Amino acid sequence: MSANLINMLLEATGQTLYMVAVATVIGAVAGLPIGVFLACSRKGELLSAPAVNKVLGILVNATRSVPFIILVVAIIPFTRMVAGTSIGTTAAIVPLTIAAIPFIARLIENAIREVDSGLIEAARAMGATPLQIIRKVLIPEALPGITLGLTLAVVSLIGYSAMVGAVGGEGLGDLGIRYGYQRFMPDVMAAVVVILIVLVQAAQSLGEWIARRVDKRAPRNRGA
Amino acid sequence: MQSDTLAGAAITFDGVGKSFDAKGGSVMALEGVDLAVAPGSITGIIGRSGAGKSTLLRMVNGLERPTTGKVMVGGRDVGTAKGARLREIRREVGMIFQHFNLLASRTVRGNVALPMEIAGVPAAEIRRRTGDLIARVGLEALADRYPAELSGGQKQRVGIARALATGPKVLLSDEATSALDPETTQTVLRLLAEINRDLGLTILMITHEMAVLRDIASHVAVIEGGRIVEQGETYDIFTAPAHPTTRSFLSGVTGVTLPRFLADRLTAERPGGPSREVIRITFLGERATDPLLAEMSAALGVEVNILAGAIEEVGARPFGNLLISVPAERGAEARAYLESHQQRTEVLGYVG
Ligand SMILES: Nc1ncnc2c1ncn2[C@@H]1O[C@H](COP(=O)(O)OP(=O)(O)O)[C@@H](O)[C@H]1O
Ligand SMILES: [Mg+2]
Questions:
Q1: Distance separating alpha carbons of residues A137 and A114, to the nearest angstrom
Q2: What are the pLDDT digits (tens) for B130-176?
């Protein structure tokens, strides 16, 4: 493989990591409050607001049920508005983020709902406000689950990022299609696949490692 | 806790009712509850599962609101308090739970600090008080451990330290020892009694273990089907339970049982021929050791058989239980004699 190709692979890897990282960070920042609200606004819960919960739930489901490739195309006008262009790596971050937000919100909702209701009761008995319960009890207690959820989100986004080549996004997926497939360079295709596998493995292992460290529920984790 | 002068708060329930909406109508969890919990007392609540004990307890810190009536804690109406006012009352009412409800993500120190963080206590003071509280419950060596690394008894000690963190005037305990083994139960109870003595706070506790009440509670309330069916000083309730529910709870905890060969022959009605009346005498207080039976035998000329007996303590006060039999035709006379000497008697039946 030529030095030129290796450079291209490195560059594409960087682009993929950039897209996934930005989408994950924005997705988490926006998904966290939505997820917390989804978990806490159910009937009889901390911020009981069943009607709003229902509407938000439908919205989240609707976004999640649009196939990613269709989402990418459908929001091109919006992407152009936000990124100034609908082509390129930065533009590709927009649909990735739009897909990441509801996905991460659901994962965080699930993690929060796993928290023992006895802890909420104990915090209420201490005189905690709903916001204090969320900040000091729900999020810290759900952290192992949230970490695993974000890991799953990163892995999924690495997969999604391969599709944005379709609208002029770059990165590993795009490289694989343009060189590996269209120019029939099987070594490029193979290299792309191997790098993706390594990225996914690394993300998964790192996520699990962090989750183990923040999980104090089992005695074996002492000293973490 | 040195800087705090803690004193217990009185708790009063005044005509309290509570109904829950349920499928196909509503459930009356409590009805017409009048209860005065004396400041500084340890008051036990007993009753069958579903009787309404937890609902009653949870009204004291406003986790449940009364549908009717009034709940007052330290002169404040908790039943109608909302928002900041309710949270302020809650800081004066600590609570411990059957399953401890500790945060797995925080160390012992972190768990004890939580109520103070919530109350906005400055960090330096939190540090100091956390140390004091952990020392009070004897967990200095484990201050940096996580709950997963503690035994049940240790977890409940953390729960107690946490409940005391904001210097409450009342401590609520909902079956706090039900998940613990008997020995650990004893140490946790001793700790609660010690706290009651040192800090003077009012303790309201739900328990299924009558021995717990006998050892540390000054007052008892018995609840059945959402109503208080009996309440009073532990000593009086244990020595003279009036309600059948109370009796069935106490059977096996106090009072001796009839030897088997007699129990089998016991009849409720006095038989036709010659028979003997079986009487339970409850000796109270100092008289427990008086040679009263010998005196009665001499005074009335009745022949008394002693069948079984035991002396026990409720709190630190002794009381005795004695089963005797006398000729059935002299039963009324013997009971009148004993009653006139301030003993409680109860006819258990007759043997032919
Ligand atoms: N949140 C609730 N919703 C509906 N019914 C409830 C609720 N809490 C308690 N109850 C009902 O009220 C009654 C008393 O419950 P509880 O106070 O928990 O009893 P106990 O603690 O004595 O076992 C029960 O019939 C129970 O099913
Ligand atoms: Mg209960």
A1: 12
A2: 999 999 999 999 999 999 999 999 999 999 999 999 999 999 999 99
Beta-carbon-side half-sphere exposure of residue A38 (alpha carbons within 13 Å): 27
Q: Nearest-CA neighbor of B247 among B255, B226, B316, B342?
A: B255
Tokens of B244: 């059948």
Q: Is the ipTM of this complex over 0.85?
A: yes
Ligand 1 site, residue B348, Cβ cutoff 6 A: no
What's the rounded mean pLDDT across residues B254-283? 83
Q: How far apart are CA A76 and CA A84, in angstroms?
A: 11
CA B29 – ligand 1 centroid, Å: 6
Least confident segment among B86-95, B259-268, B293-302, B335-344: B259-268
Half-sphere exposure of A8 (CA within 13 A, CB side): 19
B288 CB contacts (<8 Å, ≥6 apart)? Answer: B311, B318, B319, B320
A155 CB near a chain B CB, below 8 Å? no
Rounded to whole angstroms, how far apart are CA atoms B65 and B122?
Answer: 32
Whole-angstrom Cα distance, residue B17 to residue B59? 11
CB contact under 8 A, B104 and A216: yes
Q: Give yes or no for a contact between B291 and B320, defined as CB atoms under 8 angstroms apart.
A: no
Listing DSSP states for B282-300 in one string gives EEEGGGGGS-HHHHHHHHH
Taking CA–CA distances from A130, the nearest residue in chain B reads B83
The two three-digit tokens of residue A198, written as one number: 């390594």
Helices (H), A134-184: 139-161, 172-175
Nearest-neighbour CA in chain B from A126: distance (Å): 6
Pick B91's closest partner by Cβ from A122, A127, A214.
A127
Query: Which atom of ligand 1 is nearest to B206's Cα?
Result: 21
Q: Is A124 on the interface with B (CB under 8 A)?
A: yes
Backbone angles phi, psi at A144, to 5 degrees: -60, -45
CATH number, domain A3-214:
1.10.3720.10
Residues 6+ apart with CB under 8 A from A183: none
Q: Which residues of B touch A119 (CB under 8 A)?
A: 101, 103
Is the CB of residue B22 below 6 angstroms from any atom belonging to ligand 1?
yes
- Residue A182 or residue B62, greater confidence: B62
Say yes or no: CB of residue B285 within 6 Å of ligand 1.
no
Lay out the sheet containing B93-97: strands in order across.
B93-97, B170-174, B202-206, B42-46, B219-224, B227-233
Nearest CB neighbour to B148, from listed A116, A121, A218: A218
Are B93 and A222 within 8 A, CB to CB? no
Q: Is A51 on the interface with B (CB under 8 A)?
A: no
A136/B82 Cα distance (integer angstroms): 21
pLDDT at B307 over 50: yes
Q: How many CB atoms lie within 10 A of CB A45?
A: 17
Q: Which positions of chain A have pLDDT values less than 70?
A: 1, 166-167, 219-224
